[in-house]
Amino acid sequence: MSICWGHYLGERRGSMIRIMRPRTVKQRFRLWIALAILMLGLSINIAFYILYQQEAQAEALRNLSDKLNLQTLFIDRWVQERELDMRLLTEDEAVRTLNKPLMEAIFRDFTILQRDFASLSYVNADGVTEVDTYSAMGLHVNERDYYWAAKQGKSSMSDVIIGKASGEPVIIFSAPIYDQEGRWSGLLLGSVKLETIQRVVGSLNTGETADFYLLDRVGVPVTKPRFIDDVRSNPRPISTEITRRAAIQSVSKGAYANYKGDSVFGSYQWIAGHRWLLVGEVSEKELYANLYGLMFVFIAITLATLVLSFSGIVILTRRIERPLEFLLQGTRIIKEGQYGYRIDPAVFKHAPAELQELCDTYNLMSRKLKTTVKLLEESAMIDPLTELYNRRYMMQNGSLRLLRTLEEGYPCSVLLIDIDYFKQVNDTHGHLVGDRVLRHVAGVLQRQTGGDELAARYGGEEFMVLALRLEAVQAKALAETIRRAIAAELYEADGIRIALTVSIGGAACTGLAEGADAKVLLEQMIEEGDKALYRAKQLGRNRVEWEAGPPEDG
């Protein structure tokens, strides 16, 4: 029994040795390739994990900083605009003369137009409200800081306070009022609800995981919906690591617990003259959630690479099948329209001579096919007589460029140009001279256009210019330039002198309907331009007419 057991163990050990010591080159190649891929994949995954953690944190802080800077500019501008509103109101004649009925009407109209203010109030020099759009007269505010600031001639913005009239948390903007003799006669108050400021901040909150909120200088929340009920009942500041960092201007970047107890990375910025603290935070859990997903992808890629490598090793043994597969793949690629696809001759290095010759022949045919197709495509888009773009190019490519330009917010115009009395040129001098005249006019067009101005032969003796990014006035000026240039350059050849003029019709497009079709849009502009061209001919030729009627230069 012991002999049998020993024999079994010996066979098992021999099998393991054979596995670990492959005898054939193919087996060894597969084993070492697999080990190399596994080690490389493991090294890359570990290095990536460490580096991504560091980079993710740095990137998150950079993004927070960028968004804080953007929101700071926006909020500072909003505060400045509200302060300017207050100053302008205090300079109104009715306010300076204390015409209370008129003041009340002005205040009510202003709060309708400027909805950021919940109410406007006039407070007399004794600190008592006499005019209030909230209908709260007779309130004493002489204990408020903004009253004493106004008495000293200063405008101010309060911290979060509970409004005496509304009983809701508000921010108060105040500005002193002076009569016509320059004497202080009270102050103007404008109250802004926290919901309004929440809306201002929220309009720039584009992130899905980042959390932005405002605190006043003592830490009372100015924004964030979950705080508003708390502030209404009991205004109290919050204290977290980010508020402590802001208090001492610390640049620490480590994770900390936010007001909800979650571990976050955060950044801050003082705004509005150091009166508000703007805080941006991103959850550490959400930040690293992407890392775990990427690690899964990397591991999957490593395993896939291992499988593909084994497949590659098997394919290497198929020196006949592999070249044929590449040839078949190449024909499929050409069938899909990728002309000029080239098979690497190195793939056929160990293939029979017949297959190597077949590879060379395939690459030669592919190169010639690409050249031929390119010439055919170019000839399909270029007018062979004038070497300008043809009508097909304009309807296919020009219409797409027109649509993109309009989507970017730029105006565009179309010019239709017709050679006057061209039939007489053909009848008098023959069609050969007529062709030369067409080339002559095309040359003038090429010299007068360029960049975003596409010139084309539209048909017969008619040309077209698609002027992108030009206002209607500029396009009309271009049309006049073209008309004068053609009139100034006589056709002279073989003793023949022909004075040429053109009639030009133009149409502009400055707007774009939703879902507009590029080709239909260009056809509509051409139709309008054709109307203008017809009118130019009816009015005597050698002139420019504009269907859309652009404004004349002053």
SSE topology:
Blueprint: H1 2-20, H2 25-90, H3 93-96, H4 100-113, E1 119-123, E2 129-132, H5 145-151, E3 156-157, E4 161-162, E5 169-178, E6 184-193, H6 194-202, E7 210-216, H7 225-233, H8 241-247, E8 256-257, E9 263-271, E10 276-283, H9 284-316, H10 321-335, H11 353-381, H12 391-407, E11 412-419, H13 422-429, H14 431-448, E12 453-459, E13 462-468, H15 472-488, E14 491-493, E15 496-498, E16 502-509, H16 518-538, E17 544-546
Helix pairs in contact: 2-9, 10-11, 12-16, 13-14, 14-15
Keywords: Cell membrane, Membrane, Transmembrane, Transmembrane helix
Domain GGDEF: 410-549
Transmembrane segments: 29-52, 291-316
Description:
- This protein has 554 residues and is α+β, with helices and mostly antiparallel strands.
- Among the domains are: 81-197, PAS domain (Beta-Lactamase, 2-Layer Sandwich); 391-546, 2-Layer Sandwich (Alpha-Beta Plaits), CATH 3.30.70.270.
- Helices cover 53% and strands 18% of the residues.
- It is built from 16 helices and 17 strands.
- The protein has helices at residues 2-20, 25-90, 93-96, 100-113, 145-151, 194-202, 225-233, 241-247, 284-316, 321-335, 353-381, 391-407, 422-429, 431-448, 472-488, 518-538, and strands at residues 119-123, 129-132, 156-157, 161-162, 169-178, 184-193, 210-216, 256-257, 263-271, 276-283, 412-419, 453-459, 462-468, 491-493, 496-498, 502-509, 544-546.
- Strands 1, 2, 3, 4, 5 and 6 form a six-stranded antiparallel beta sheet that branches. Strands 12-13-11-16-17 form a five-stranded mixed beta sheet, sandwiched between helices. It has a four-stranded antiparallel beta sheet with strand order 7-10-9-8.
- β12 and β13 form a beta hairpin.
- α12 (391-407) crosses α16.
- The longest helix has 66 residues, at 25-90.
- The chain is flat, with a radius of gyration of 39 Å.
- Residues 549-554 have low confidence and may be disordered.
- Keywords: Cell membrane, Membrane, Transmembrane, Transmembrane helix.
- InterPro entries: dCache_1, Diguanylate_Cyclase, GGDEF_dom, HAMP_dom, Nucleotide_cyclase, Rev_trsase/Diguanyl_cyclase, Sensor-like_sf.
- The chain crosses the membrane at residues 29-52, 291-316.
- This is Diguanylate cyclase.
- It is found in: Cell membrane.
